[in-house]
Amino acid sequence: MHPELDNRIRVFRAEHRMSQSELAEAIGVSRKTISTIEVGKFVPSTIIALKIAGYFKVPVEEVFSLITSEQQTA
Description:
Layout: E1 4-7, H1 9-15, H2 20-27, H3 31-38, H4 46-55, H5 60-63, E2 64-67, H6 69-73
Antiparallel strand pairs: 1-2
């Protein structure tokens, strides 16, 4: 099984009291893009991941992390 990408975008948005639409506009993507990334249906490009992390002024590893097959079965 391939690793999957977990994210904390919803957490960061809540901390900053912002909607998906507001984040999307700030980084230049659609609200649907943010939504599909949040729920794990879309893996963002490196550029989008860096833009999201940069917007929140945190390292990309604080927003995104890999879930390995061992973690998935635990």
